C-alpha cells in the first residue's frame, strides 16, 4: 500500500500544484474566506464528497463506513495581512499573502481527499476532513470545535501538518508539548492629552506605555520558574499624531506563549495586575482586552506519535520523521489536542541550503511545491493505517 499511495499522489501532483497556485493568488483572511471556501467546496463535490459548512467559515467532509473509529486530518485555509514580495508569476495582488503556507495545507488535504476516495472500499473506519479558517488569529479551531467538528461522527484521533523552513520532505515532531500556547492582548493606556510643551498639565500615555513594556518583562525574569518557558512580547505600540501634541491614548498589542496551562493563567493575571498598577502610579487608566481564552499548548499524544512516525517512515523512507526542538510559536490545532489524541508534524518545504532563503511570515518566502503531494500521501497513509490498526 505504501508505494502505491506515494505513486498515486505523485500522479496528481500537477492538479495539487494548480490548487495551490489558485489559492495563493486569492488569499483571504481570518473568517472572511468566501472565495476560498467556495473553491474547496467545489473541489470536494467534484471528488464525490458532500461537504458541510462548520462554524463561521469551516468545512467538513467524511469518508468511510460508519460504526468504526474516526481519524481527523486538518488543513487551515487563511492567509496573512501582508503584501507579497516573492516575484512569483502567481503572486497575490490583493495586498494579502499566503506567507505561512496554508495554501499548501489546504491543497495537500484536497489531495488526501482524492486519494482516500480512490481507496474508500479499503477504509476500516471513517476519515473526517477538517478545512479550518482563522488559524492566524488563533480562533478558527475553537470555532469549529464549538460548532461540533469533533462529533457526528465522534473523532478518536486527529492529525495536522504545518510547513517548515527545513529540508524538503522532513517530517519534524516533538514529544510532549510541541508548540506554545497563545494569548493575544491589547492594552489601551488612557491619559490626558494636551500641548507637548506643557506635560505637567497632561497625563502622558506614551510614557506610561513605555513603563508597562519594561515592567511586563519581569513576569518572565522574576516571577516564573526558570525551568518553565514563557515568551511575552509587545509587537505594536501606537500613540500620537504630531511632534508637539501629547495624545490621549496609546495602544499596545502583543502575545504570551507558554508550555504550561498554570503558567499561562498566571501570566495573564499578572499582565492585568502590572498594567493597572503602573497606570495608577502615573495617574493614567487602562483597558486590557484578551482575544477569548487563548489556546493551550500543543500536546502530541505519545502513542499516536509513535504510530504515525512508523507510518511516515514506512511511506517515505526511514528517518523521514525526525525529532526537532519544540516551537515557541503557536498553532491553534492545539485546541483539538486537549480534546482528543492528536499529533502535529512540521513538514520541510525547502531549507536555505536548498535555495529557500526565507521562513514563514516573511513577504519573500517561497516553498518547494514538491512537498504538496508528499503531504497528501502522508495524510492518506496515516489515516488508513491508523484505522486499520485500531478497528
Automatic annotation (TrEMBL):
A Pfam family that the UniProt record links to this protein: M20_dimer
Segments forming domain Peptidase M20 dimerisation: 185-276
Secretion signal, residue range per the UniProt entry: none
Coiled-coil ranges (or none): none
PANTHER family: METALLOPEPTIDASE, PUTATIVE (AFU_ORTHOLOGUE AFUA_6G09600)-RELATED, PEPTIDASE M20 FAMILY MEMBER
Protein name per UniProt: M20 family metallopeptidase
